[in-house]
Description:
heterodimer; A: 380 residues; alpha/beta; eight-stranded mixed β-sheet; 28% helix; B: 374 residues; four-stranded parallel β-sheet; 8 helices; 27% strand
Amino acid sequence: VRLPAADVVVIGGGAVGAAVACALARDGRRVTLVERRGLAHEASGANVGLVTPFSTYVLDEPEPGPLFALTRESIAWYRRLGEEVGLDVEYEQEGGVVVAETEDELARLRPAFEAYRRHGVPMEWLDPAGVRACEPAFAGDRVVGGVFCAWNGQINPIRLTRALARGACRAGATVRLGTAVEGITMAKGRVTAVRTSAGDIPCEVAVIAAGAWAAEVGAMAGVRVPVTPARGQILLTEPAPRLIRRVLGGIEPSARQTRRGNVIVGSTVEAVGYDKSVTVDTLAAFAREVLPYFPGLRGLRVIRAWAGLRPASPDHRPIVEVLAEPAGLCLAVGHSRRGICYAGGTGRLVAELLAGTPPFVAAAAFRLDRFASGGAHARG
Amino acid sequence: MAPVAVQAAVVGAGPAGMAAAAELARAGAAVHLYDENPSPGRPADGVVLHASAVVWGIFDARTLAVWDADQAVLVRPDVVVLATGAHDRPVPLPGWTLSGVYTAAADVPPGRRVVVAGASPHLPDLGAARVVTTLDAAAAAGGRTIARVLGTREVEGVVTVELDAGWRPVPGSGVTVEADAVCLGFGRVPAVQLAVLAGCEHRYVPDAGGWVPVRSATLETTVPGLFAAGDAAGIGGARLAETEGRLAGIAAAARLGAPSPAAGAEPRLPGRECVACRHVARLAALVTPDTVLCRCEGVTAAEVGEVLDEGAPDLAYVKRMTRAGMGLCQGRLCEAGLAAVFAHRTGRSADSLAPLSVRPPVRPVPLDALAGLA
């Protein structure tokens, strides 16, 4: 079967794929997004939903750089997205605190704090009393201080993905759920079509946004994509009156309270292949570790626990690139634990790379060939 | 925490579970019987009864996570009999969430004028004095049911509608009846959550009430050492449940190398037949956009319809996008109704719709109890 041709086929219906599809469709391209299951079926549907330009991840990038730029772009988009498409994504930018439990941790936050503030991010340095004032429900006895970032916030990642896909459809894209990619057809070193369970889709460009399955889809085009699945488990409590006001970083597990009042606790990062089981040990550990931080959660009942597979790259940074070989193949993969922070920015970046306009971010940081030399990507 | 090893565990102390536990004990097995009710009745001699004990999860095929007497424990039996029974079949109708709509006769307060609706033999028995009218969808001729429950907060009446032989509403047959309570009885749905969580293969059997575990002749599921008996494996009523419980108990004992005195004289099993199960999904035609499909999360048919229009591939997707089935009841009060609406709107057959995935805990468990596990 031959399906209608597209300029671009986006493979994967997570937040990243949906953002890419939306950005490209709004650029006037004919876009078809194909998703094997449903939107947000994997990592986008099994994460805590933090959108945090300042988190412990900044320790990898103490001077605001490409990762910060991706997140800032995402935030700008998420703020207006709900209104654009008529779907509330439950984005709350109430600010958040990154806490430190040792003087050493606190000292490591300092340079990043200074640098981010220099870049105009509204931040405050907090002593333990400041942390408590910021988040009265938090009772970390060991906390020696922290950083408040007014731009940190939380979102409903499932509604975000759905809103991005809706935005893509409104801009003329076709979204095919329940459609599995079976192959990528190439001729003379160029992508010419994506073969799916519903038929072939002739196209100029294929964007791989297949999350934890990126390596498998990359192999269809003869490209080695160093992305492996990392299981993330989370649990959810029954709805409760507002207790946790802001998002907290620097503690594991983290906890946030949804608009509906449910408390989400998570998550893990486990290299266990494609096994999505929830383990009783992890549930017990979450409960044991979160209660001392938030004693007010005592008595609250857990109603659900589940797991999703994150797309882990060797350095936990995304791989976003329009490859020279084969021509017409684009990667938007490897977002690791930070896909919700980076999805919106990734959408814009892919659109700019394909349009050949200067990208808003130093795109070299996300190239695949950064793994080419040395054994840095041996991690399982 | 290392699980406590036990020989045999039976989950559910209804007719099937009681019988299974009795047979296991008779064969000399050390058997623990778990039931979430505080006083489930007296089991046979030799059975250790855990009342108010909630089995909220099953891990690694056979490890039971139990919340027992305010303590969380893990139990690893050599054999398990799941006899978790069934729950009321939810049939979403416009107005069914109004105050004054019941599914159990015992819950209806005295002095109300009641409309009874459902399908024989599942119709609730309230005694003639209080019943304004009884609407039997399964009546041999001229079946009727409720098309809409009237009222703003409380039940003020119902609009009834005629059904054809296949339970399709007959247009123009509406009649308004005054009442101040409604009692619904459309049968029951097997409680298969633990079996699904354990990884047992299931199949859709309309005459058994929907999705049920695939079982061998000795009632063993596709997970070795895990047996299922009674309504939990297909609606069949108390007598069949007891027979199945005995059979499963005898087979489980044999699995332990403790042949039951009853081995070789196993009872024969009659077939199951549930008329309501075969047709009840057609009542989804009565659902209106404002009909609430998921009570816990307040999700309406309009919201579900929007996701269906977006190309929802399966029921799990509807759940993820709308939160229907994500509430405290874990879908027990809405899954069958959601499936019916999905099938009706998309033209898909019920057996092509995979059931909602089951997430632990299958019953809510306090964080503190979980923390105690470690």
